[in-house]
Structure to design on (121 residues):
């Protein structure tokens, strides 16, 4: 059997959080992930940390323990924010494009196509 890719492991670990809507410690995830989702116990910590680093899973240290959680609503809000940012960037890009097109049209005014210009192109 072929091992899971990093993305598959991340997706499966997110399923654990979304399906249970619970809070876990690392040792809990190291027990649950291999049994339920086929993620090797050796890679659980690395996958979990990558999800925390990407802001998909929250982590809080309480006393001497780290607790991890992720709720579907947070993922939805995070995607909505990302979408808003991308739409804003697209809008800005379109506006720049329009402004540049107008600048080109203005620059063409008074410049006629001559034989000499055609030769230079």
């Amino acid at each position: 059997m072929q091992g899971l890719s990093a993305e598959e492991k991340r997706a499966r670990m997110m399923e654990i959080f979304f399906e249970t809507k619970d809070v876990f410690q690392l040792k809990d995830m190291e027990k649950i992930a291999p049994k339920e989702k086929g993620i090797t116990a050796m890679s659980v910590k690395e996958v979990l940390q990558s999800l925390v680093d990407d802001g998909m899973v929250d982590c809080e240290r309480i006393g001497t323990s780290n607790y991890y959680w992720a709720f579907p609503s947070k993922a939805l809000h995070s995607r909505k924010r990302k979408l808003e940012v991308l739409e804003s960037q697209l809008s800005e890009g379109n506006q720049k494009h329009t402004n540049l097109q107008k600048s080109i049209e203005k620059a063409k005014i008074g410049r006629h196509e001559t034989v000499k210009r055609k030769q230079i192109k």
User: Anything to note?
Assistant: The longest helix spans residues 72-108. The radius of gyration is 26 Å.
